[in-house]
Design goal:
The protein is built from 5 helices and 8 strands, in the order αβββββαβαβαβα. By secondary structure, it is of the alpha/beta class. The chain has a 4-stranded antiparallel beta sheet with strand order 1-2-3-4, with no helix packed on it. It has a 4-stranded parallel beta sheet with strand order 6-5-7-8. 31% of the residues are buried.
């Protein structure tokens, strides 16, 4: 995470991301920063039979990094990422960010999305694929004021752009 992806160790520590050798353990907390809403696992191996991302039993897809709202001023930019790794890259670059676990889970996360859509200074770097484009379209329908940013040529998502260009 730190060398390959250039992520800030403090960001990962503050988010309480951990590892159990084969998976990253990614906790999703409520706005208070203490109430655990869910856990997502990210498989680190190469076995194509194992799903890359999975939620722990009983977890529901929610908006990731809701505690960011605790110190967010209404005039500050808030970036919405597709997935936790893009969120970590945005945070490591000094931006305030939340994430939707994937473009396909936005509807399931909508009950947790109310605070996000009310923020008036929303920004997004949509992934360069159909799910990323669909996420932007869905977000635009929920928050028409969202500002779209283009990724640099050849970058599929913000995490890749961050690794390549800082």
């Amino acid at each position: 995470l730190f060398d390959q992806r250039r992520l800030d160790e403090k960001v990962i520590s503050d988010l309480r991301v951990s590892s159990n050798h084969s998976h990253l353990v990614i906790p999703y907390f409520a706005e208070d920063g203490d109430s655990l809403l869910g856990i997502q696992w990210r498989y680190l191996g190469n076995d194509s039979r194992v799903p890359r991302f999975n939620f722990a039993r009983g977890s529901k897809p929610v908006v990731y990094n809701l505690p960011v709202f605790g110190g967010l001023e209404s005039s500050e930019k808030l970036y919405i990422a597709e997935g936790t790794s893009d969120c970590w890259a945005l945070l490591s670059s000094g931006k305030k960010a939340v994430a939707v676990p994937s473009a396909t889970t936005l509807a399931a996360a909508s009950s947790h999305f109310q605070r996000v859509q009310k923020h008036q200074n929303l920004h997004i770097f949509p992934d360069r694929d159909m799910p990323g484009e669909n996420l932007f379209i869905q977000l635009k329908s929920l928050a028409p004021h969202i500002v779209r940013h283009q990724l640099p040529p050849g970058c599929k998502d913000f995490a890749e752009a961050f690794v390549r260009f800082g």
